Amino acid sequence: MVQKLWKIIPFILLAFFIGEPAFAATNAQKRAKAKAQAERKREAAKRKAEKKKAAKLKAAKRQRIKDGKPLLYIYSYDLKTGEPLPATHITAQDKNARPNKKPKINKPTDNKKARVSRGLPAGEYWAAAAKIGYFPSDTAWFKHKEDEDTVKLYLYPETRLTFTVTDSMTSRPVAANVIVRSNTRRKVMQTTSDSLHSVLAVLLDDRVPYYTIEATAVDYFPFHDTITDPALFGGVVMSPKEVKSFVLHNIYFAAAKTRILESSEGALNELYRFLVSRPNQRIRIVGHTDNIGSNRANQALSEGRCQEVRQAMKARGIDASRIEVEGRGERDPIVPNDNETHRQMNRRVEIVLL
Hints:
Elements: H1 2-66, E1 71-78, E2 89-94, E3 105-108, E4 115-119, E5 123-130, E6 134-135, E7 140-144, E8 149-157, E9 159-167, E10 177-182, E11 187-192, E12 199-204, E13 211-216, E14 223-227, E15 236-238, E16 245-247, H2 265-277, E17 283-288, H3 295-315, E18 323-327, H4 340-346, E19 348-353
Parallel strand pairs: 1-8, 9-15, 17-18
Antiparallel strand pairs: 1-4, 2-3, 2-5, 5-7, 6-8, 9-12, 10-11, 10-13, 13-14, 16-19, 17-19
């Protein structure tokens, strides 16, 4: 009997080890099937809820139309990126409403679809949008139909230009009258800088081709520049009238070359106006570089850049005999050439009055 039992034990163990994985696989299949069934139920419930919501909205729409107040949607967008703008304040009113009448819509857009909605009678309306950091939208005039209607408003982001008004010799703040105009000569800002802090800010629209900035102060030469790229504007630098020399700010050259970049037009025009206002004044244009490169190369570079400035004045009608040039290369740094900021300060064009 025992011998027979030992003979069948291997078969029993074999059946057990074969049956265990099969049993586990069956359970896994059941769980996967139950999970898939639950997922289908959730999807079905979700579709049912969406269908119910759509039917409810459709019924509400029919009721609004029946009541003579079809729904009006007003959306707001970033004109530059096309992205929706939540928290944009929307105002809408009847076209012929009195100025002091309460607007029909006066609230911010929601965070989900960047829109406001309201049932309004069919008719003529206007709408506008405003948001911090953006220029107000243009006023949109539209006819609200006897059905759902959609109006889209676009806002353009503001460019905030912060700059200082300083003395060219001491870098101290200067109290000056500053005027910023658009390319159409419309005043964008007119203010007086503070002699203690001298930091001003103005909102610019980068759709405008360029702005001009003018500054006048007692005992200083007038400042004038053109702003084509706010990121490149180096601020208002006023030159005292009693000085014998001053740095020509906001003049830019191609890297390691003598060619003057177009962004230097404002500085060149400022020098031109200075020479026109003093017809008998002779000057020496002195060029300086940093210490990157050889002495010989820097010397040639500084001389070439001075010649380019002289040629620019000659092209504007200034007698070339009034202008001397001198290249100083890297010999006269105003600060150590130990970092890029200091090297940029040492790369300069100085005007010496003769």
